Amino acid sequence: MKTQVDAGGSDPVYWDPYRPDLGRDPYPTFRRMREEAPLYYNKEYDFYALSRYSDIDTHFGNVEVFSSARGDVLEFIKEDFEIPRGMFIWEDPPLHTVYRKVVTGIFTPRRMNDLKEKVRDYTARCLDPCVGTGRLDFIADLGAKLPGGVIGMLLGIPDEDRDTIRGRVDAALRTEEGKPMEVSQTSYKGEGFEDYVDWRAKNPSDDLMTLLLQVEFEDETGTTRKLTRDEVLVFVNVLAGAGNETTARLIGWIGKVLGDHPEQRRQIAQNPSLVPAAIEEILRFEPVGPSVARHVRKDVEIHGQLVPAGSAMLFLLASANRDESRFPDGERFDIHRQGQPHMTFGRGIHVCLGSALARVEGRVAMEEILKRFPEWTVDADNAKLSSSSSTRGWETLPVFIP
Ligand code: HEM
Fold this sequence. Notes:
The protein is α+β, with helices and mostly antiparallel strands. The protein contains 18 helices and 14 strands. The chain has helices at residues 20-24, 27-36, 53-59, 74-78, 95-106, 109-114, 116-127, 138-143, 146-155, 163-173, 194-202, 208-214, 229-243, 245-260, 262-270, 275-285, 317-320, 355-372, and strands spanning 39-42, 47-50, 66-67, 135-137, 216-218, 224-226, 292-296, 300-302, 305-307, 312-315, 377-378, 384-385, 394-396, 398-400.
């Protein structure tokens, strides 16, 4: 086995997840990586990357080799970060299995679908004030409000406290342009939710927080017990962290992608039954989390090259989503596309637990936007991509409404 990965050619392909110019349009680089360096190595930041659909499909779910126990973001894997117990998105079996089962029993697709009309009312309240103003900002007017509002509804958090959820989580994820994220030891333990958890423990209701406080489960030692206060706080933090910025960015991409494809936007406005397919195509075309990282815990050979234990591997979901071998004409946005599922919600044991909720929010948002604003043009001079290494999307996306 060779130990060196050569990107090949006289002008080797280069991918740096922190470089804003590459981040603005990563797709030409991803295409070259799929063709020229399917197992890519970046010396500067010392990580490997897989970009082909088939490779990600094969390796991403292999938890024996690719561990989540040091996080799923490159910066965390590189640090000696102490992951709080219960942060199941960053745990391997058996702990992940135990906790995932607890949350799966509560966070059911049915419960998410039951929220649909509440999500619609909330969306209408966000959008109605914009009608007749000639302007709409997909982030400020909706993306910044809806996901936090919905998680707040799920957890039973009173309306007036909900905006703080998004602010806290976004601040933790933000990066300085061109630089890796600063890893904080304290931002994942559920700070800010303590008072609410304690209040809810004494005032049970029919919300998810009450269920989390009451559920009994068998832990990894075989003991049947309730979640500790710390575990509940960490769970809430995982849900708020995983479901907030991601869905906010999805709403931004609805504005950008349908702004760039007015003919398809008109088809959807005239025929709302196209909305679910249009959301899937936006999720494929512009996935809000372009990559997910893993810590390599055993030597593995890929494309004849050794990836040594201790390395970091990036799985480029955004590249897989445009892999021509799976998505013919994959660089084209097409709401009538049939066939392959995209990779945007991940694969394997960590596959997104909130995908049903994200789909409800995305679909309702698209329906309600198109009902009120069937036409728009993106205000490109004032639209700004967000600076975060774990998600890719718009910080602000103002549009002109005719
Ligand atoms: C467009 C929106 C979303 C996208 C693209 C997305 C994407 C993902 C991806 C790729 C993973 C796998 C991470 C990994 O393998 O390390 C994941 C996991 C997860 N997501 Fe989402 N997500 C979205 C929305 C949500 C929402 C709304 C929630 C809940 C409120 C949520 C909750 C979770 C949780 C709890 C996990 C961890 C699951 C586990 O480790 O077993 N996500 N998500």
